[in-house]
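Comment thread on ticket #2218

A.B. wrote:
> Attaching the input chain for the structure job we discussed in standup.
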Amino acid sequence: MRLGATIPNFDANTTKGPINFYEWQGDSWCVMFSHPSVFTPVCTTEIGAIASYSNEFKKRGVKVITLSCEKLDSHLDWNADINSYCNIPEDFPYPMVADETRELAIKLDLIDENSKDNPKEAKMVRAVYIIAPDHTVKMLMMYPGLAGRNVDEILRVIDSLQLTSRLKIVATPANWTPGTKVLILPRVKDEELPELFPKGVEKVNLPSGRSYVRTTTDY
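C.D. wrote:
> Ran it. Output below, let me know if you need it in another format.
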């Protein structure tokens, strides 16, 4: 999978019942997580953290789904551990796909390089895909097995993707957070700025003399 690739449709058994992915996603944004295994410490903390942020995903109109190459019963049993460890006071908020045959892991490119010659025995990598309503991949992250993911960063990227999708003439700078300055794309002409950003634009003076770094909070 690469940026811009289309996630193929699939049918799967999940902890919330069988789904067809395209029907389940509908016209929403989606975050798809993969996990190496159930009943493992890093995955338990991650899935619990993601569950505890469920309201943040809902506010952004984002559906969440996770998957690993384990049996459905194992996922259901694991939910109780996650709810207990992470103090989740309600039913687990999103579906977990049981990809026991690893067919989906192979289709979605979730097998690491060391396991590519024996994918049927491999565990999934620790991946995150942010998927647009048109089913295309807008962001992907691959984590090593021993490093847990940062949910705040995933939400930050969603905010950036949704903003730049809505307002197609800006980009977000390094360490951007909602409400702070955004960058105006170079294709926007200076004479267009007053109409597009009536609250003001700041041009950064650079040694090259080229004013290609233009920022605004008018969005």
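A.B. wrote:
> Thanks. Noting for the ticket: The chain has a mean pLDDT of 92.
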